[in-house]
Amino acid sequence: MPCVYISTNISLDGVELEPIFDEITKAVASIIGKPERYVMVILKGSLAMKFWGNKEAAAFGEVVSMGGINTQVKRSLISTLGAILQEKLSIPTTRFVLKVTDTTAGVNPAPKL
């Protein structure tokens, strides 16, 4: 199940969040190759955040998935989620940082008996 957690210093009061949730869900499902119903999206606003020495609009995101992550997927997630945040919340892509984790990376399968 992919989980997307995005924190931002902008206020989300009065912002219609449903289209943002829908767009992020569809994008992540498509990029990682998982069904949309398995994607969880958490969006938190009005957080104390400073980036590049100032408090202008910025966001930090994290995507955690059990499988489906490789270098190309990471690049696509960064680009796509950054574009969504820029379009929907006016957060410049240069002020968005994304951490991507595959929980199965480095896990060896159980030995066959």
From TrEMBL:
This is Uncharacterized protein. It comes from Melastoma candidum.
